[in-house]
Amino acid sequence: MKTKVIIELAESYLKVGIGRRVAVEPLASTEPAVISNALSLILKQNKCSKNFDVFVVFNRNKITVRRVDLPSQDPKELEQMLGLCLVRQIPYQKEEVCWAYQNLGFDGTNNSHLILAIALKNVFKNIVNAFIPINILPEAILMSSQGLLHYVAEACKDKSLLEGSYLILDIDANYSDLVLVHDHKLGSSVVIPQGAVQLKNEQEKEKFAIELKQALVALNNEIPEAKCDRLFLTGAAAEHLVFIESVLGRDFNLKAQYLSSREYDTFISGGLKDISLSAVMGFNSQIAKDDIKFIVPELQIKKEMKSKVQQLMILGVLLVYILISLGGIALLRLIQQQLYSASLKGRVVSLAKETKDLEDITEKLKIARQYVDSKSSVLSSLYSLNRLCPESVTITNFNWELQKSLSFRGYAQQIPDILAFTNTLSNSESFKGAQNRYTRRRKLKDKDVVDFEVVVK
Predict the structure, then answer these.
(1) Are 115 and 104 in contact (CB under 8 A)?
(2) CATH architecture of 378-456
């Protein structure tokens, strides 16, 4: 399971939440190299592996928040209408800003209520330039105000106090964030330019009191139906609880309650009491699907490229695995064939030794067959030839080949005797196809005889 890492970049501190732990590293400046080194040091000290999801929390004092009512319920249409009315909400060109929104719901009559958050693209440069060198790409960029809601929801033990509407005042080092929560959602938010550092000065305290009163009035006017009777204090507000109660008691019917957690108490015991970790801890506990999330084009492109590279690497590894598997299967089959061939050769050699005696017997039987078979036996042929040969014909030579041909030579007194003998042979069963190859006269002991040769095919 991936570890969730929450990073909040303040003016002089880098706040990092890793699981349930929180670490803070002072920053000499907000240069990308300084941020990269500080983040790398925190991750190394906390022994974080590469298997984590990074979420960046943007300070509320760098974001413009507006509550917008639009006459539609369709998400696509709402987004188009927000893009058109965006330029009327800020003194910047549309191309200079990044914006995101949260739909708070339809009022049942005419309008959808939305929270619109706007930030200059320039303020995202440090994030892009600081994270890319250390190969970290955030999953999303969140707004700190919504982290306060999650923190209060977890830190407040009496959940009945969270029903209806309530206020949250979070005091950070150099600014404070006053949040109105209505129906468990961010109703609106106002930045107060004084923080824990400024509240140490009496003159700044008076300014803070004036700003807080004006912010409370503004929030009440934005959502008149939100009747709040409680204000939760978070962050570095613990030391200023009495002061804030005195401000609220004069003109507002609000009860102040400071909320803390075991993790936060452990952290401030180390000495850092003038910074707020509420947003980081809140997002550590929960990131809601409908939380405002900024999309930075540069980070989106880098993330998509990284995803494509990972997909290509996975595909390459898969192809290599397939090729290795196919090669292994082919090699295995080749080895099996070679083993089978060697086995067959061994069986041939073994059988050859066992069948040698049989082959000798077979050869002897072939020879014996020439004399046993009455049709193909040479003795049968000689017997038949002797029986058919007349007294006027004398056989002098006999040539016989098994299942091939039979020929013999001899002589007679007259040629008609030879022709008659040849016809007799040809008509017999044993010498069908007998033909006289030649005849030739010669002297034999002062007698004239005719030599001949007969062939039986």
Answers:
(1) yes
(2) 2-Layer Sandwich (3.30)
